Amino acid sequence: MEKKVIPRKEYMKKQIEEALSEENKWYAGEKLGHAPTVAEAIIYYAECPDGGAKHFAEEYIPEDMVKKPDEAQNKSTKNEKNNPPK
User: Fold this and answer.
1) For 24-79, what is each residue's pLDDT tens digit?
2) What single-letter DSSP state applies at residue 21?
3) The model's pTM
């Protein structure tokens, strides 16, 4: 499956919405044995090995993480100019 490329701001917003969703809070509560705090829900979302952040990262990628072929070449040339061999 190809990842959906979205703006960084939208990427962050969607991820926070998922972490604070009722579904994620329910799963976190099941694991913790009590209603999770906001921090616990976010930690559960980030650390759950079979869901949450893992699934999100499989579906989306922020557009600033996608390198265009010409940008990759320009970046390496720029780095060589700014950091010549010693």
Assistant:
1) 999 999 999 999 999 999 999 999 988 899 999 999 999 999 987 676 566 655 66
2) S
3) 0.70
CB 11 within 8 A of CB 67: no
Total number of domains in the chain = 1
Judge whether residue 21 has pLDDT over 90. yes
Phi and psi at 62, nearest 5°, equal -70, 140
4 vs 27: CA distance, rounded Å: 26
Find the domain containing 18 and state its range. Answer: 4-82
Tokens of 54: 């893992």
- Paired with 4 in beta bridges are 60
Residue 11's closest CA among 50, 49, 59, 43?
59
Secondary structure (H, E, C), 26-58: HHHHHHHCCCCCHHHHHHHHHHCCCCCHHHHHH
Question: What is the C-alpha to C-alpha distance for residues 32 and 40, in angstroms, rounded to an integer?
Answer: 9
